Amino acid sequence: GENVEQHPSTLSVQEGDSAVIKCTYSDSASNYFPWYKQELGKGPQLIIDIRSNVGEKKDQRIAVTLNKTAKHFSLHITETQPEDSAVYFCAASYQGAQKLVFGQGTRLTINP
Amino acid sequence: ETGVTQSPTHLIKTRGQQVTLRCSSQSGHNTVSWYQQALGQGPQFIFQYYREEENGRGNFPPRFSGLQFPNYSSELNVNALELDDSALYLCASSPSPSGSYEQYFGPGTRLTVT
User: What's the pLDDT score for residue B98?
Assistant: First the structure.
């Protein structure tokens, strides 16, 4: 079955700098890759997603890139702000599946 | 438009007891999936409900069961609770049972088994 590896497990950056979180997946059938942000005591919030027919997607300060050949996808956050501090999860799925398979999460801390 | 809601927020149960958790899906969504999130881990898929029937199941024993109602809301039932069942239980609603569609999560129910 699908396996998603996420790195790093913790990331600390200065406010205003960029943050990058990377994930790899194992199942070549996977074609949908969402990213979630989870704040303390809350459920995961979908922040951006990408499908396999697209190599990059951007939404304001957040971008996601996908390399299907290498089975890598990454989240890029630019001009980080204190409110970006949270745990971020990547996930993968495909059309015939029902479930999302999640990475282990990255705890992002933005230092003022 | 109402988002995904879950109840209760917190629950404390004793080993061996049974528990029922509830989820109301987002307006317009006909599919509900349940996930278990242990502390410090990513969510793990329990099962999905579509058209009031189980439509896929993860690696969880039969004592985890569910229901979906005509209004698409859902329940998760866990029998014979074990200490390892302590976790955050999340439901996610989606406009389709396909894995290629967005899933929107509720705030979760924190279950503690003592």
Answer: 87
